[in-house]
What does this fold into?
Amino acid sequence: MTERVETLRSESEDRAIGGRRTSVPVWALGLAVAVIVGVSLAALAAFGGASLPERTGPPVEELAVERTLLSPGTIELTVRNIGPDPVQVAQVFVNDSYVGFTGAADPVDRLGSATLRLDYPWHDGQPYLISMLTSTGAVLEHEIPVAVATPSTDGGFLASMVLLGLYVGVIPVVLGMLFLPVLRRSGGRGIRVLLALTVGVLVFLAVDATIEGFELSQGASAAFGGVLLVLLGAAFAFLGLMSVDRWLRSRPSVADQDAPSGRRLAFMIAIGIGLHNLGEGLAIGSAYAVGALALGSALVVGFALHNTTEGVAIVAPLAALRTSPIQLLGLGLLAGAPAIVGALIGVTVDNPALSALLFGAGVGAIAQVVVQIAPSMRERSARSLDPAVLAGMALGVLLMYGTGLLVAT
It folds into this structure.
């Protein structure tokens, strides 16, 4: 009886509190709190710094070189201030020789950028050490291991990048999708093995993209997060693709809301692989722009064999469904065309921070796809994975590893 009375009293108090809460709209309460916080932060910024002692010691000056362009008789550097204090470049030396330069007439503020154009008769294939002397006497260095003329991004060159993205992205994926008739001859167990092979392929892509993203983040400005860019890209892509999946599940045309449908899985896989190929195309374009990659048949064939496996992964969930050629072509373009976009961005915007973020996005998208596929690899009555399914996962990893050895980057 006592417990019943206490329960009724608690419910009565909750109703009273709820009634008091409804007297003020939630949006008005949130707006008031936001205004108070904003005014407090503004006052802290205005008066808090004045009450603290000034910093002792020399200024902290840091410049990161984000892009290097070499043309006959000229070296062009795009620099960004990643330190806390403004930086004024006073003099520039190349291999200990003073050179004239233009640009960066004013101090570069924190996170600001400027372009330095050095008048220097550099020679192809030679290394150069560029030393930037600031107005406070600090020396900031940038090394060019091998000087190579930067390709001009005219119409013909951009057309070549489109062809490259087509060769290493769209065509291989579409060729891999031609295995669909073979996959349709497989039974239920065979489909599960194929889905496991898909997971193996995707896991390899995710690990490979994570390693490459971390490597690129080392060359990115620490002010923008470094390795954190890869993690942020992965998190946003994972959540974004999860939202896409929830939206697809909510559509009336989806018959089975509990088990992932084959078409939805294929669509999700295509998006995940597409984001990965965007980062891959970006890396190819950036490497070619700085002369670190030679285009040729070996590169094209290597990437074609490597990415053909991705096409198999896309059509594996469609083995038991009827699909039109238009739908298959759409999936192939969704997965492969981002390589074209990535290659175009790579040759025009050589930014390690952007590259790291996009590689992270590819990792997050692939992780979400693996989460979607995993339940379909096990029979409903089974408690563990079939050994054949585990073998399929291992085969997917080995296929990607073996074909990856043919990619000469």
In short: Residues 188-219 form the longest helix (32 residues).
